[in-house]
Amino acid sequence: xxxxxxxxxxxxxxxxxxxxxxxxxxxxxxxxxxxxxxxxxxxxxxxxxxxxxxxxxxxxxxxxxxxxxxxxxxxxxxxxxxxxxxxxxxxx
Length: 92
Known about the structure:
Layout: E1 2-9, E2 16-22, E3 28-33, H1 42-55, E4 62-66, E5 72-77, H2 82-90
Parallel strand pairs: 1-3
Antiparallel strand pairs: 1-5, 2-3, 4-5
């Protein structure tokens, strides 16, 4: 299991993973954009789908642990180690 800090941008022109960055508090976060708007959980659902596809895991293996109503989130991915997740995301 791996925990990924995410900085989500909803309403983007395209869904994509922009790579690693440092947030205002100095924490490493993965910047992700989704087309969906933050209405009725649509952006969160799009985020889960995008990361599941990028990491080659089922959607059921990806869950939002914290930050459901925030742009900064913590996602938990089951079935991957931290090294596996980072190597799969680095190649994107």
